[in-house]
Amino acid sequence: MSEGQKAMSEGQKQNANGVAYQLEPLRGFDGLSTRVQEMPVPGPHQVVVRVRATSLNRRDIMLMEGTYPMPARPGVVPLVDGVGEVIARGSGVTRAALGDRVTGTYYVAWNDGPQTQALGQEQYGANHEGWLATYVLLDEDSVVHVPPHLTDEEAAALTCAGLVAWAALTKPLPVGPADTVLTVGSGPVGLFAIQHATMLGARVISITSSPEKAERLRKLGADEVVNRKQTPEWEQAVLDLTDGLGVQRVVDAVGHLTLPKSLAATAYNGDVVLIGAFPAERGQESADPLGGKYVGLRRIAVGSRADFESMNRTIAEHGLRPVIDRVYPFEQAVDAYRYFETGDPFGKVVITLP
To answer: Looking at the structure, do residues 327 and 273 belong to the same domain, yes or no?
Structure first.
């Protein structure tokens, strides 16, 4: 008998059934419904996690709408961010013990090294069951322990936005005190980018759209904030703030609409990192979007398990706390989706389970 089966036989069977949301893509919010979920029985090198909290990303809206680069499997349990307690283990598991508080990776099998197309095609909450459920079944290699100082709501914010911002700032080389970082976009990725860059000692310039958001970005650690509505040519403002030299690293979480300005604000031999998957671009592209500069332009896809663990060590060392905008109970998950899409949240939108 596996450890997972033993765990079920030792008092869990009577409460084994849970609830899971499932996603039928291309149906909007009507494509989210609930079903009874039996507690999974872990196979070799798998763990069952009792979910405590999960959170939304732009990717989840795109999967619902059918605009993500890969389609969601019909009926899949959505969401890739989450945290919970290990309640059952299959045979051979060594990376997690019963009772551990853990989250999971974005990709099922990308543990370290360069990403391949094959690794990128296996994702929790897309074609593998995700976290919007009572239970989630994880491969052992997907398990990541969370910083102990974080609440469940905060720990449920790390897998996507937290990690992609970390990878943008630490790969191929980490930024440091000699560097200036520009963040474009004040969604969760942009907020994490400010917090991470501050932890790494870099100077931070941020682009936002309102005085209220500007003040909040400063409190997170931004040294200077440029209001793009007041200063439409914000790339020139960034150059002015850097004595005409530009910044060493841009974390652009908006995409093709801001890319020309991000490139213009980049220093010689700097890097622009595009965050996220974007719908097909519309309109004309400029003849030379690089503007004649030698600029490294990278579009990255979250990060590996090793990246995740490195980020968590730094978060724990510095006591960083993710920004949470609003928390919804599990039974109001559809309302959370609606608010995430239309409510202009500042920080993560989290769903908690009893």
So the answer is: no
Report the greatest alpha carbon distance in the chain: 67
Per the rule left: phi > 0, alpha: psi between -120 and 50, beta: everything else, 330 is alpha
Q: Give me the number of domains the chain comprises.
A: 2
Phi and psi at residue 76, to the nearest 5° = -70, 150
**E strands within 140-246?**
143-145, 180-184, 203-208, 224-227
Burial class (CB in 10 A: 0-12, 13-18, 19+), 5: middle
Q: Return the H-helix or E-strand segment holding 113.
A: none
Q: What span, in angstroms and rounded, lies between the C-alpha atoms of 217 and 208? A: 9
pLDDT 10s digits, 334-348: 999 999 999 999 999
- In this structure, the answer to whether residues 137 and 269 fall within a common structural domain is no
How does pLDDT run across 241-287, given as a tens digit for each residue? 999 999 999 999 998 889 999 999 999 999 999 887 766 444 444 44
Decide if 90 is inside a domain: yes
Residue 196 sits in which domain range? 164-300
Enumerate residues 6+ apart whose C-beta is below 8 A from 294.
268, 269
pLDDT in tens, 286-322: 446 666 676 777 888 899 999 999 999 999 999 999 9
149 and 7 share a domain?
Answer: yes
